[in-house]
Amino acid sequence: MSATLSVRNLRTHFFTKEGVAKAVDGVDFDVAPGEILGLVGESGSGKTVTGFSILGLIDPPGRIVEGSSIRFNGEELTAASPERLRAIRGAAIAMIFQDPMMTLNPVLRVDTQMIETVQAHVKVSAAEARDRARKALVQVGIPSPDERLRAYPHQFSGGMRQRVAIAIALLHKPKLIVADEPTTALDVTIQGQILFEAQRLCRESGTAMIWVTHDLAVVAGLADRIAVMYAGRIVELGRTADVIERPMHPYTKGLIGSVPSQNTRGHRLAQIPGMTPSLLRLPAGCAFKARCPIAVDKCNEMPALEEHRPGHWARCWRAAA
Amino acid sequence: MIVYIVRRLMQAALVMVVMSILVFVGIYLIGDPVLMMISPDASELEREAVRRALHLDLPMWRQYLLFVNDALHGNFGRSFLAGQPAMGLIFERFPATLELAFASLVMSLAIGLPMGVYAGLRPSTPGSKAIMTGSILGFSLPNFWVGLMLIMVFAVMLPDLIPGWPRLPASGRGATVDVLGVPLSFLTLDGLRHLLLPAITLSLYKGALIVRLARATAREVLPMDYVKFARAKGLSERRIVGVHVLKNIMIPIATVSGLEFGQTVAFAVVTETVFSWPGVGKLLIDSILLLDRPVVVAYLVIIVFFFVVLNLVVDLLYSVLDPRVRLESRAT
Ligand SMILES: Nc1ncnc2c1ncn2[C@@H]1O[C@H](COP(=O)(O)OP(=O)(O)OP(=O)(O)O)[C@@H](O)[C@H]1O
Ligand SMILES: [Mg+2]
Predict the structure, then answer these.
(1) Partner of A47 for a Cys bridge, out of A63, A82, A136, A212, CB 3.0 to 4.6 A?
(2) All domains of chain B in start order, with CATH
(3) Which residues are CB-contacts of B17 (< 8 A; sequence separation ≥ 6)?
(4) Cross-chain residue pair A168–B248, CB shorter than 8 Å
(5) Shortest Cα–Cα distance, A95 to chain B (Å)
(6) Do residues B112 and B209 make contact, with C-beta atoms less than 8 angstroms apart?
């Protein structure tokens, strides 16, 4: 089956006064129908910018640079008109944001915010739209939906708000959902429930999903494949089991070492030494070399993302090491 | 809600008491109203008679108690000068001031809000920069000067220079229509023409304020996640700006508009004088100059009451606009 989303050489740069911040700089990946791709990386690695790029939501001073390609069901989104992008957003591609406390407009009732989403894409009566909104709330497990529809966001807990945001994302049965750390702000039980529901949804409806997180442990149990991002580039990409059990990139190895588990109890957690380099002053070659324990001279040249094992890619000269 | 209103009214009563005492003491200290009222060559005997008639011979605290007693019976005394009931005098003039203040508020909102939101949405276009520079002018030009310039241009120069150019009136209210016994200018064409120049004069400052406030709030609201989420839902730009952004902008705008409206009603004196607008501001200034205490006190009582009502209206409006406030006021 052909991929739902196919991103090639995506470069999204921010042209600021201080210089050009290459927040996303040559990202390639595919997501197949029903597949969950985990997009992992530390803060500032460009995960959110990647998500916004797919939805065409990059604001000046940022822009998707010439030569980037985002194909969605065969349609080139970087060449799509603003009106076409608007029609796709919220309908065929939906996004769930990181912070549920900030995603819903505080001065509008939940029904207003759901009904407008329905009516932005299909011509239906308000009553019909309301009915769809109600069903979506039921689907994400919100009790007494009729009453909840008439409430304002501040009358919901954080977990409930994120469910509402997810319900909004589901209104038009999207082909692709970009979920930007949707559970980071929630407590662990609710996080588990939402993860489970997300997985079920993708399996049942064939929805492709990009699950953005900085927490490798979260995607390990959720994603089919994992893409690891560092400083605007994908440094490792492969099936979840391969990436977790046999990581090739030293950065991925560092990430896995810093996840707490049974074996690490009582030991000091391994940390990746050093800090993320500033995007404005990226060194030539591999961006990770300054923090890399196995860096060699060759690392002053940028390695390509190469398939070192079947379906398992890494951007590292020493991937085989 | 009722408790809340009652509490507000009690606060108002307290303010009124304090104000009336201050005014009493103030005017008592400034001078003797009788000297203003009768001719300098009147005999001491005649003056004494007038004093007695107005109870000005009594010690101040007794005068005050007399006033309070009368006021509680709804009688705020008669103007020393006009001899008419003080309240009546003020109520005659109050609608004209309210109307002027209201017209200028509507005008400043109608022009300031779209300009401010535009400047917030597109901060770097030449249009936005022109708007922001213009708003500084609106802040800094003194009211009386603007009024005089408007009169000069629209009531004198343009009609003189260009034949057929409509001459805008520069004084008075023009024709009025009584609605429930209240004379209103804006319902007649002539009245509207009279209203135009003074309302523009007053709306300049307010409009500038609203432009800047709307722009600042728009710049604050636009980067919010919920605006981006609204776009991620595929809403049209019109709906995002017109509903999601505007509804949030209206919260501070409502507060400031309420304050500004009160300010205009209480301090429209200058503009009213320039345009001979028969409002309450002119009456107050004259009464203060002539130490016409009953009118000054009655005016202050009404203004305090007016501000209380205005604040209530703003609070109610606020809770309609901001659902988070609604819950709190219900809890208290
Ligand atoms: N509006 C902007 N102007 C300038 N630079 C920006 C802008 N938005 C993002 N960036 C740059 O893009 C980089 C990547 O940001 P992004 O939000 O994608 O990180 P992230 O991986 O989502 O991190 P987090 O886990 O903290 O959400 C940031 O380091 C920042 O420097
Ligand atoms: Mg992010």
Answers:
(1) A212
(2) 2-72 (no CATH), 95-289 (1.10.3720.10)
(3) none
(4) no
(5) 6
(6) yes
- Taking the C-alpha atoms of residue A233 and residue A302, their distance in angstroms, rounded to an integer, is 11
Q: Does A151 touch chain B (CB under 8 A)?
A: no
Q: Which atom of ligand 1 is nearest to the CA of A45?
A: 21
**CA proximity to A182, closest of A102, A289, A267:** A102
| A94/B229 Cβ within 8 A | no
The neighbour count for residue A20, using CB atoms within 10 Å, is 13
Position in ligand 1 atom list of the atom nearest CA A47: 21
Contact B231 A88 (CB under 8 A): no
Q: Is B291 left (phi over 0), alpha (psi -120 to 50) or beta?
A: left
Q: State how beta strands A36-40 and A208-213 pair.
A: parallel
| Chain B interface, best mutation among A83, A84, A105, by max B CB count within 10 A | A105
For chain A, the C-alpha Rg in angstroms (whole number) is 20
Q: Which atom of ligand 1 is nearest to the CA of A50?
A: 18
Q: Among A314-318, B137-141, B215-219, B290-294, which is the least confidently predicted range?
A: B290-294
Place of tokens 């209201």: B102
Say which amino acid occupies B294: P
Residue A57: list chain B partners with CB under 8 A.
228, 231-232
Q: Indicate the pTM of the whole model.
A: 0.83
Place of tokens 């595929």: B234
B81 class by beta-carbon count within 10 Å (0-12 exposed, 13-18 middle, 19+ buried): middle
Which residues contact residue B273 at a Cβ distance below 8 angstroms, ignoring those fewer than 6 apart? B144, B281, B282, B285
Q: Could you give the CA distance from residue B105 to residue B253 in angstroms, rounded to a whole number?
A: 11
Among all residues of chain A, which has the CA nearest to that of B239?
A: A116
Alpha-carbon gap, residue A319 to A305, rounded angstroms = 10
Kindly list the distances between the CA atom of residue A297 and the CA atoms of A177, A294, A317, B174, in Å, as whole numbers in the listed order. Answer: 41, 10, 10, 89
- Residue A146 CB neighbours (<10 A): 10
B35-74 in b/e form (b: 16+ CB < 10 A) is eebeeeeeeeeebeebeeebebeeeeeebbeebeeebeee
Beta-strand pair A176-180/A208-213? parallel
- Count Cβ atoms below 10 Å from residue B144 Cβ, excluding itself: 13
The tens digit of pLDDT for each residue in B240-261 reads 999 999 999 999 999 899 988 9
Residue predicted with more confidence, B151 or B326: B151
Q: What is the pLDDT of residues A154-179, one digit of tens each?
A: 999 888 898 899 999 989 989 999 99
Classify residue B331 as exposed, middle or buried by CB count within 10 Å of its CB (0-12, 13-18, 19+).
exposed
Domains of chain A: 1-81+204-259+275-321 (3.40.50.300)
Instruction: For chain A, give the mean pLDDT.
Output: 88
CA distances, B140 to each of A312, B166, B261 (Å)? 67, 29, 19
Query: Residues A198-224: what's their mean pLDDT?
Result: 87
Residue A14: pLDDT band by 50, 70, 90 thresholds?
very high
